[in-house]
Amino acid sequence: MRKYGVLVLLLICVFSTVRAEELPDRNKVLEQMCLANEYFMNKWIDVGKTTITDKERPSNIWTRGVYYEGLMALHEIYPKKEFYDYAVSWAEFHKWGMRNGNTTRNADDQCCGQTYIDLYNISPHPEKIKDIKICIDMLVATPQVDDWSWIDAIQMAMPVFVKLGVVFEDSKYFEKMDEMYMFTRNEHGDNGLFNEQDGLWWRDENFDPPYKEPNGEDCYWSRGNGWVAAALTRVLKELPENEPYRNQYMNDYKKMMNALVPIQRKDGFWNVSLHDPNHFGGKELTGTSLFVYAMAYGVNQGILPGDKFLPVILKAWNSLVADCLHENGFLGYVQSTGKEPKDGQPVEYDKEPNFDDYGLGNFLLAGSEIYKLK
């Protein structure tokens, strides 16, 4: 029996050593994140410079807001003054405001508020969150709950509510957030945008049944589902444990994470059409990064079992840095803005998307949780 016990102990030690060696080196992860971020900061030295595609847009739109979410995640694990100053300069340029003022109901406009609140938490000054608070207070005070008619909106705005609720210790923000989330989940479209059976989301009412992909499957857009996964992750990070809404978000989060495991590509990515690999099938960074972010958070918090999810996470992260990250920090395989698999195609290694900020934000979010893996 003693020999058997020693053998078991040796096997455990060997397995633990192999597992530890499989984890990415933290310094390397940080180096990769900083490389990609440096490329962007050098390109966009002027934080207020507009983006011109089909039209001119200010730099506090959702695409840039997502980038700053990623930058603040990088700053959390590597609090470099340069990162903080870059975010503050951007916020100050826009006077801590939103694209369409503080009466906008558009979640895309509110996304920048996530970073404003994060910066407020580092150095509390009321002007930093005055406008975003006015905006969300307006939503709280009005009866409408149907603003989030597309699932991307869940990520753009939902974390703003939870952050304000935590800052002001006021559950009214949690209550309104839940009403809006549940309406999107259960009411938008014919029967809500979340498919309980598949554990995935239709992007908006245009894509729920009877809409089908070419292979006859439901249309689950990768980045759209990634937005929801990221939103639930960010909400679970901050929502107090005793809040009654937490169980709903946790259950939806777990359903999504488990639904993603069997549909991961062999190369580690997820297809832009999650249930139709042949409909614009190929590598894509944004959805994959958001899934890595959400899954790695779950493992780090003990919510998801490492033996099941770590191989999935590591395969995806290793593919992101090996196949997407250029030597100069440029990120390839980023699908341009849109709402479904066919948009922004083709997605290629050397192709620059119409906006180069949100893909980096997604990548930095993923890296911030990969860095914490133990």
Fold blueprint:
Layout: H1 2-22, H2 26-43, E1 51-52, E2 56-57, H3 62-77, H4 81-93, H5 107-110, H6 113-122, H7 130-141, H8 152-168, H9 172-186, E3 194-195, E4 200-201, H10 222-238, H11 246-260, H12 285-300, H13 306-323, H14 358-370
Antiparallel strand pairs: 1-2, 3-4
Structure characterization notes:
This protein is mainly alpha-helical. The chain has one domain: Glycosyltransferase, CATH 1.50.10. The chain has 14 helices and four strands. It has helices at about 1-20, 25-45, 60-75, 80-95, 105-110, 115-120, 130-140, 150-170, 170-185, 220-240, 245-260, 285-300, 305-325, 360-370, and strands spanning about 50, 55, 195, 200. The two termini are about 30 Å apart.
In short:
This protein has 374 residues and is mainly α. Helices cover 55% and strands 2% of the residues.
Distance between the termini: 32 Å
Mean pLDDT: 95
Count of separate structural domains:
1
% residues in beta strands: under 5%
Order of helices and strands: HHEEHHHHHHHEEHHHHH
The CATH topology is Glycosyltransferase
Gyration radius, to the nearest Å? 20 Å
For this entry, give a set of tags.
374 residues; Glycosyltransferase; two-stranded antiparallel ribbon; 14 helices; 2% strand; disordered N terminus
